[in-house]
UniProtKB/TrEMBL annotation:
<keyword id="KW-0963">Cytoplasm</keyword>
<keyword id="KW-0464">Manganese</keyword>
<protein>
    <recommendedName>
        <fullName>Ribonuclease HII</fullName>
        <ecNumber>3.1.26.4</ecNumber>
    </recommendedName>
</protein>
<dbReference type="GO" id="GO:0004523">
    <property type="term" value="F:RNA-DNA hybrid ribonuclease activity"/>
</dbReference>
<dbReference type="Pfam" id="PF01351">
    <property type="entry name" value="RNase_HII"/>
</dbReference>
<dbReference type="InterPro" id="IPR024567">
    <property type="entry name" value="RNase_HII/HIII_dom"/>
</dbReference>
<keyword id="KW-0540">Nuclease</keyword>
<comment type="function">
    <text>Endonuclease that specifically degrades the RNA of RNA-DNA hybrids.</text>
</comment>
<keyword id="KW-0378">Hydrolase</keyword>
<feature type="domain" description="RNase H type-2">
    <location>
        <begin position="10"/>
        <end position="199"/>
    </location>
</feature>
<dbReference type="InterPro" id="IPR022898">
    <property type="entry name" value="RNase_HII"/>
</dbReference>
<feature type="binding site">
    <location>
        <position position="16"/>
    </location>
    <ligand>
        <name>a divalent metal cation</name>
    </ligand>
</feature>
<comment type="similarity">
    <text>Belongs to the RNase HII family.</text>
</comment>
<feature type="binding site">
    <location>
        <position position="108"/>
    </location>
    <ligand>
        <name>a divalent metal cation</name>
    </ligand>
</feature>
<dbReference type="InterPro" id="IPR012337">
    <property type="entry name" value="RNaseH-like_sf"/>
</dbReference>
<feature type="binding site">
    <location>
        <position position="17"/>
    </location>
    <ligand>
        <name>a divalent metal cation</name>
    </ligand>
</feature>
<keyword id="KW-0479">Metal-binding</keyword>
Length: 199
């Protein structure tokens, strides 16, 4: 059972990102303020959910949240500032876009750059513990998946409709065969080191 809040004095926003471990595409982040006591039986860590359930929940979260926002940082900036900083920047951008600013921020993970003077708590595996973080994880994941699905139409060889830019065997074989694209993260190891000798 997900907890509805971490503390009771201040309005809480949950924050999470999607796409940190990908070889291609932006990192997306979402910030969500849920109404007090919000519950939904399907809501869980987005990685544990079926895509169809995430899509259904996205509509419910967008309708019932007090407010929500989604933001992204592209692969070019990821290469410039590194993926960790890019993830925090995407979260900050999402928080800035909220119609109501929170008094407290719940962040999935063990690190975060302070957002102004707003207090925050980092919760390891928070998307499986707190409803607002789980809701943010659903939005970040569904928005990112949708974006990668659109890119797939232009770059069908890489299987982004299925792998969403993560380093699957098919994705890496396509990079080997076709090279990278303007959406690949050049600072990431796109191909594993060649261990076998070509004889």
């Amino acid at each position: 059972m997900l907890l509805s809040h971490y503390q009771e004095l201040l309005t809480e926003a949950g924050c999470d990102e999607a796409g940190r471990g990908c070889l291609a595409g932006p990192v997306f982040a979402a910030a969500v303020i849920l109404p007090a006591g919000f519950r939904h039986p399907m809501l869980n860590d987005s990685k544990q959910m079926k895509a169809a359930d995430r899509d259904k929940l996205r509509g419910i979260i967008e309708t019932e949240a007090v407010c929500y926002a989604v933001a992204s940082v592209d692969n070019v900036e990821i290469d410039k500032i590194n993926i960790l900083k890019a993830s925090f920047k995407a979260m900050h951008l999402a928080l800035e876009k909220l119609q109501q600013q929170p008094g407290f921020i719940l962040v999935d993970g063990n690190r975060f750059y302070a957002y102004g003077s707003t207090p925050h708590a980092c919760i390891v595996q928070g998307d499986g513990k707190y409803a607002s973080i789980a809701a943010a994880s659903v939005l970040a994941k569904t928005y990112r998946d949708e974006y990668m699905q659109q890119l797939h139409a232009t770059y069908p060889h890489f299987g982004w409709d299925v792998n969403k830019g993560y380093p699957t065997k098919l994705h890496r074989e396509a990079i080997r065969a076709f090279g990278d694209t303007p959406y690949h993260r050049k600072s990431f190891r796109l191909l594993p080191e060649q261990l076998e000798l070509d004889l």
